[in-house]
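Tokens help. Consider this.
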Amino acid sequence: MNLTELSIKHKTDKWGVHFYTPHYERHFSVYKDKPIILVEIGIGGNADAYLGGNSLRVWSEWFTHPDTVIIGIDIYEKLMHFDDPRVKVYQGNQIDQEFLEGIHKLYGDFDIVLDDGSHRPEHVIETFGILFSKVKDGGMYVIEDTQTSYWDGLDSNGKRAYNPENPTYAYFKNIPDWINYSEIPIAEKPNYLEMHTVGVHFYHNLILIDKDFNTERSNGIPSRLDKAETAERMKTPIIVIDECVNIGNFGLTTHIGGIGDVANENMPSIMTDGKRPYFIQGFIFSSVDSTIKDAIEYRARNHTGSWSDWVTCNNFVGTRGSGKGLTGFSVRLSENLKAKYKLMVIGAFENTEGFIIVGDGKDCIANTLNNSIYGIQIIFQPI
């Protein structure tokens, strides 16, 4: 079934009262068979604990991946049963920052946030301010029933006067300026909304916002984008594992197309957004510990498929400024370190879903051998 048919089946107002489902079909299809985390604010049924949940059942049936998580949030307690264990229900206020951050702490960044809550413009804007930063790059933030922006009050008698301030739309009409910040000739650096908003779709009573890392430069004026700020974002770990250690003050420096050298002295992990030209052309693992730096070796595979020689720490492999990304790398430990640590070698590759994870001495390459690397990380786990 398509989303319209599922909405009719489960008696949601996303088709009939409103006509959202064709838009969702178009924009959500990319997530349909992937493991995502979807949060919907507003379960429905008002204060009745056993009414509502219709749209959660739609998402449950439409998003097929077994590792998908569908989270419903409502200000009222909800006790209805869902056959799908992937559906989780929580009671809380959509502008309670501590509550929302608690949900985020449980599940991590979200792929889709859908605000179908109170529809009060002040709540819509405040919730966006809390949750947009918790949506993954490549994810989407959705606001339903935006007709309330035009109302002077939220009474239920049908006699709503026009609100000339139009608060919800007055705020989100700024989005084209966020997206095009690089074209605005002012001295200030881009803020978070400008750096992470790449698209918006306005439909009848509906706004969908595309989130991603917005680094596209103007072709007419100097860039407001600070390369140092871009590089700082690239130092977040690709994978977080509790039981790991950073031995010998081990760090990583990569040379990234369009950026230059990016050094992470605190952990051996650097990842870009995977878009051209931000691919890794060369790298160096560093350590000041003499017992460590000669006990770890690595090599790189270039764009032609040939491999560099194995080198020890503090030696650069690859190129700088060639415009050609690396297509693989390997890391191996001495026998002494093998006895103490398990090694995870992690690579993020162009046009490859997920990450490539291999062990000690194994080649970290994509299934399609010519895919360029945009992320490198190694993890030491004590044995």
About this structure: The longest strand covers residues 135-144. The radius of gyration is 24 Å. The chain has two domains: 3-211, 229-382. Residues 294 and 312 are 5 Å apart (CA to CA).
